[in-house]
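Retry 2 of 3 after timeout on previous attempt. Resubmitting structure tokens to design endpoint.
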């Protein structure tokens, strides 16, 4: 019944919009309807993570080939996947609570699992299509844990349980290939053994081999992580070059953010929830803001209490729940140079919070059985309250205007929220309002270049087909000539609009000439990133100015040597300009890459067109 009700609450969300990476990672799959042979390219060619996330991409490809209900269909799949995960959480909780003989363990598992399932914090995960990667990773992480519990039960009966053990490893591999941070399930399982099962074997005797193996893996894993980051410390610090905060500031800020996550799970404030948290205040020191000191001291207290709690069986189980939350955040909320705050990072770690709650409730129920009915009744009330708040969030996510307005009202200092509102206003023809929100976005983002701001305004004017004054193009990039543009996505939006001739009144040649003046000056060969040059090459191609396009591609390949996309573009422009020797050199490079198996199906088909000629 809970699964059905949850599905009913989430279903209106299928009408919601595509957000952020949905457009770049999912919308491009539309080509599969006409060219299904490209499926392998998408499954194994995604660059979202170091392993390519083929399990997640396979789900998107299969959906596009056999379901293809567009964005709404993708959101339906996510909702069903969330329901499956909810059932798995309840199953895992029931297995774990039964092992420690928790009173009313089935009801506690049901309520704690329902609280996780209906947490409003997860609406932005379920209805943000690309976060299926996090959901699939969690699915296989849960199956890994459940398989391990069954393997341990088999071992406790004196059997080897090879089938269950093979499932543990199979699910672990699938989890990692769904999203790389699923590797954290390995320390979770090791701690599950240490704190929950405590190496107990047949007849209550300790399994010394398992104990030595588990403790050895924990020591080896800890040493490896320490040595890796100690030896790569310069790389780690250097990775923050494009961030507005340092490594130390990120760690201090995350000490506050993790407490905020806990608060949003236990006592959600839905007015602050959403996809955009780029307005979070960075901790410059322990005292700035002062909440950083309180958060850090609170974590010290958690550590101290956890050490004391290890003396008791229930305390060890409670500590395990806390550690699931902490370890679950260890890759995305510690030292890596990622953005500071995203709600979807709690999808797996939140399981530990609700497991800890179930353990805490089991302790008084064991001592005072008469509390069972009122505790379960009040637990049901809490689940109903969470359901109501989740329903509210889903309704917001079901409407593009409502979602954008909510984001900008909750986070008026968010660059992304204001930029989205600018796009929304432009889409309904309100150019003055669109430009005002664009100006707000520029004001709250001190790192944004004036040139990127100007290009965004030009794109907004193109949406409405009301060109801005010529001076806006003539002065574009004048104040930051060393690096006039840095936002690839902003430029690509405008280039795509001009390619499709969405704004006939826009002077495309004037804009292209301004870009040539800024970025093709031989005295300044390094004024933009590789992808900026590639985007402008596409623009010049649409204008049939192949000489300019060829120059942009040369800059692109100078920054990204051997890039297959760049080489194909170079081949196209060299051929169009009848530079036969140049084209022959590029063609030889591409054939060598093809022979080495480095070209995708689509790239091979493109190359074949030139080989035929």
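Retry 2 succeeded. Sequence:
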């Amino acid at each position: 019944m809970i699964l059905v009700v949850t599905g009913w609450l989430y279903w209106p969300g299928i009408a919601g919009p595509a957000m952020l990476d949905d457009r770049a990672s999912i919308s491009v799959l539309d080509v599969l309807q006409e060219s299904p042979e490209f499926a392998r390219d998408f499954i194994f060619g995604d660059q979202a993570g170091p392993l390519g996330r083929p399990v997640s991409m396979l789900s998107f490809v299969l959906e596009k080939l056999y379901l293809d209900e567009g964005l709404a269909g993708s959101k339906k799949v996510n909702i069903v996947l969330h329901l499956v995960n909810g059932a798995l959480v309840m199953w895992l909780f029931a297995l774990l609570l039964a092992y420690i003989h928790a009173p009313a363990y089935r009801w506690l598992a049901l309520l704690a699992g329902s609280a996780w399932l209906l947490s409003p914090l997860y609406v932005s995960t379920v209805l943000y299509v690309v976060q299926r990667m996090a959901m699939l990773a969690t699915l296989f992480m849960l199956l890994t844990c459940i398989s391990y519990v069954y393997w341990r039960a088999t071992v406790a009966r004196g059997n080897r349980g090879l089938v269950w053990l093979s499932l543990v490893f199979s699910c672990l591999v699938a989890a990692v290939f769904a999203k790389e941070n699923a590797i954290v399930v390995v320390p979770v399982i090791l701690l599950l053994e240490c704190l929950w099962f405590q190496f107990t074997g047949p007849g209550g005797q300790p399994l010394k081999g398992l104990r030595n193996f588990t403790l050895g893996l924990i020591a080896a894993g800890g040493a490896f992580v320490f040595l890796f980051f100690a030896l790569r410390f310069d790389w780690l610090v250097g990775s923050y070059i494009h961030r507005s905060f340092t490594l130390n500031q990120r760690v201090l800020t995350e000490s506050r953010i993790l407490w905020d996550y806990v608060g949003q799970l236990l006592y959600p404030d839905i007015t602050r929830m959403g996809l955009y948290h780029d307005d979070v205040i960075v901790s410059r020191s322990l005292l700035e803001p002062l909440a950083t000191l309180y958060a850090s001291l609170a974590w010290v207290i958690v550590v101290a209490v956890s050490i004391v709690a290890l003396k008791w069986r229930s305390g060890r189980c409670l500590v395990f729940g806390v550690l699931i939350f902490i370890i679950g955040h260890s890759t995305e909320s510690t030292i890596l140079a990622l953005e500071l705050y995203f709600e979807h990072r709690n999808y797996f770690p939140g399981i530990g919070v609700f497991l800890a709650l179930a353990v805490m409730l089991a302790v008084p129920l064991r001592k005072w059985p008469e509390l069972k009915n009122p505790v379960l009744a009040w637990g049901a009330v809490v689940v109903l309250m969470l359901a109501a708040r989740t329903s509210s969030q889903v309704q917001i996510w079901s409407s593009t205007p409502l979602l954008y307005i909510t984001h900008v009202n909750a986070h008026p200092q968010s660059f992304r929220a204001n930029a989205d509102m600018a796009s929304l206003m432009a889409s309904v023809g309100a150019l003055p309002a669109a430009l005002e929100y664009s100006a707000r976005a520029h004001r709250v983002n001190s790192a944004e270049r004036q040139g990127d701001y100007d290009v965004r305004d030009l794109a907004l004017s193109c949406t409405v087909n009301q060109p801005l004054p010529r001076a806006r193009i003539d002065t574009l990039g004048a104040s930051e000539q060393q690096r006039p543009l840095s936002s690839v996505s902003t430029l690509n939006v405008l280039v795509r609009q001009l390619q499709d001739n969405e704004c006939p009144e826009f002077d495309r040649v004037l804009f292209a000439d301004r870009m040539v003046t800024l970025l093709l000056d031989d005295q300044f060969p390094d004024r933009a990133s590789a992808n900026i040059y590639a985007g402008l090459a596409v623009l010049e191609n649409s204008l049939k100015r192949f000489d300019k396009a060829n120059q942009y591609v040369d800059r692109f390949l100078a920054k990204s040597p051997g890039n297959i996309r760049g080489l194909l573009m170079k081949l196209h422009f060299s051929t169009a300009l009848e530079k036969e020797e140049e084209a022959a050199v590029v063609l030889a490079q591409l054939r060598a890459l093809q022979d080495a198996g480095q070209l995708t199906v689509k790239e091979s088909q493109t190359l074949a067109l030139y080989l035929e000629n």
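Attempt log closed. The longest helix spans residues 70-99.
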